[in-house]
Every structure is written in C-alpha cells, then in structure tokens.
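PROTEIN DESIGN WORKSHEET
SECTION A - STRUCTURE
LENGTH: 179
TOKENS:
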C-alpha cells in the first residue's frame, strides 16, 4: 500500500476499526472482495447491532463472519440464495455491490440520497449492466459513491477489489454523514 491509490482511505478505515488487513500488516488491495467481507465491512462501518434472530445459512455456521452476515441480512443489505445458502466466499461484482449499497442508503433513513428521477446510466458499457441492477447503479453513481473508470466504463461484471471497496465505503460513509 506504500504508494497505492487507495492508501489514504484504507488507512482511515483501518484506524476506525472498519477495514482489517489479511494478517502480518498486509492489506492486499488487489484481492477480490467476498460476500462475507462485504457483510463484515458494512456491519462494522454502520455499527449494526448484534442480530435479534439467527439466520439459517448452513454455510456460515460457526464462521468468523456468522454474526456480521446475520446482521447484514437482517438489516436487508444482503440476501441469501434460493438454495438456502449465503455463499460467503463468492466474490462480489460491481453491480452486486451497487445493489447492496443502494439498500444501505435506503436503510439509513436520516439521509435523503435518492437518485434523481429519470437519471440514466451514462457509461460506455451501460448496456452491460443487468436489468436487476440498473436502478441501483443509477442511484449509487448519481450519489458519487461508485463511479466509472478512466475510460467511462462501470465494469458491472468485474469483481470488486478490496482497494475499490475502501474508496467506495469512504464515499458511502461520507454521504451518510458517518465521516
């Protein structure tokens, strides 16, 4: 992370005990973000309480992320799959993250951060955004939480990296008034 573009945000989130390294002082900025990590980051960032109920996902039982996943699903940020699994080690695409973050914005009722009416996605690859994610991508982009790359692409199917999440989470927390 010495000269990494996400160093400042990663260090700030680490100092707030939101983002953790991968051990031995390694942040691993280019590693792909998992569903379990996403749940843990959001729960730590928003200070979600311990869940009132136990969500029954057999693939999270007894794992380090069990409480975070249960809290994130109880809050409505994330969902499990039709087969009853959570798939904690699956990677999160950028469009999936946009959907999750738009739910976080909806959850935070103290912020009026809805996307403007009739705002359309203005990316070169906007046709690649899945229909189920279009509204969320619009909302997250119009709130300047997730933006395109230097070539004006959103890259909806690319896996989110830990470095990208540091930047995105910093923007989200600023938008919600947490930072």
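SECTION B - SEQUENCE
RESIDUE ASSIGNMENT:
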């Amino acid at each position: 992370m010495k000269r990494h573009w996400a160093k400042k945000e990663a260090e700030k989130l680490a100092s707030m005990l939101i983002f953790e390294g991968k051990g031995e002082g390694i942040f691993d900025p280019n590693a792909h973000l998992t569903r379990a990590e996403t749940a843990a980051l959001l729960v730590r960032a928003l200070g979600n309480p311990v869940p009132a109920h136990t969500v029954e996902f057999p693939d999270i039982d007894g794992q380090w992320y069990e409480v975070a996943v249960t809290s994130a699903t109880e809050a409505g940020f994330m969902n499990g799959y039709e087969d009853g699994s959570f798939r904690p080690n699956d990677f999160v695409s950028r469009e999936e993250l946009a959907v999750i973050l738009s739910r976080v914005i909806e959850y935070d009722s103290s912020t009026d951060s809805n996307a403007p009416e009739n705002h359309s996605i203005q990316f070169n690859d906007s046709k690649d955004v899945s229909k189920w994610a279009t509204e969320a991508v619009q909302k997250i982009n119009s709130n300047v939480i997730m933006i395109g790359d230097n070539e004006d692409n959103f890259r909806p199917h690319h896996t989110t990296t830990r470095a990208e999440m540091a930047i995105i989470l910093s923007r989200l927390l600023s938008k919600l008034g947490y930072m």
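SECTION C - NOTES
Residues 48 and 71 are 7 Å apart (CA to CA).
The helical segments are 7-15, 35-46, 66-75, 94-107, 134-142, 162-175.
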